[in-house]
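quick one before i forget lol
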Amino acid sequence: MTRKQVCRIILFLAVFVVLLVPLTYMLRTNGGVKDRFNGFYAEKRNSLDAVIIGSSSVFPYYSAPQIFGETGIVCYPLSTNLQRPTAQLYLAKEALGRQKPQLMIFELRMYTGMEQDMINNMAYTRGVTDNLRYSVNRLDAIRALLNEDVREDAGDDDTVPYTYWFDIFKYHGNYRSLRLPSQWMSFLYARRDPLKGFEGTHEVGPMEPADRSGVTKVLPVEDVQEKALRDLIAYLQETGQQALFVVSPYAHDEKAAAKFNYMEEIIAEAGMEFLDLNDHYDALGLVPEDFSDYGNHVNVAGAQKVTHFFASWLSERYDLPDRRGDDAYDSWLDAYARWLMYLRQEKAAVEDNIAKENYAQR
């Protein structure tokens, strides 16, 4: 083979990679998670004061625009559906690779779950791996999360490793989605999210809050989840990163409360803070109709209350800056204005559902 031929091959491979990566980004399934991660990558480097990582107990609960509008704190959510605890370490590394937040926040609800239940549907693993930009950290996340011990009826794409390394093999059939301008705008995987990662609902599924604050029993979490928590804490300590671990309000039982007590002990031993919002229902002001699905998540009316309490708590507890009035954060001011309009519309829909007793399906 001549030198000229080698150069042509190298050039071809370089062009192939340059085209393959943005095409992969565009073909990834559109939706809230993709919008949220695109929005994260679109934020200016080292511009965030806090990042909150977790599952669906994050994105419908905490409105980043509201936090900014009420306190000036710039906090962005990196959350996916049923996010496996092991993923939080790699999402933290992703966040700290682009930002220098004073505070990292981690939601703990998924740590009470069983690993086998989580890997039964690897789509939830893909919510993380298939929304990270191509990088060494993404490869590390795949190695940690990929588990071929899935259900026998799982799709082929969930058991073949190369479909995680090169997820275009999973999403090549999405070519019709390229008719959407938003898909083309994802070619760099950096597109502003108008609501800064918030994704809510106006559905109503009432739940009477149960006070578990009196539970003193301590129950260990599954070994794999404890390892994930300890590995995460070790990384945060190694990097000198200030962190807060939080539990969002939901209908949990005494067993789950005992597991949170166990995690609280581990977190306290590490000198880090723990906040269980289930212990603050009176201060939150939540009512049964603030939940969207009978206790698992809140609707926008509940999100407004949770966010207000949480924003005030962050402002009083941590020395985080107030970015309001800083021209560099005009997109956040725009997001807050958009949030207020969105909130009015969605709360009206919530009230209409309550009036008509149009409740969510069980």
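fyi The chain has a mean pLDDT of 92.
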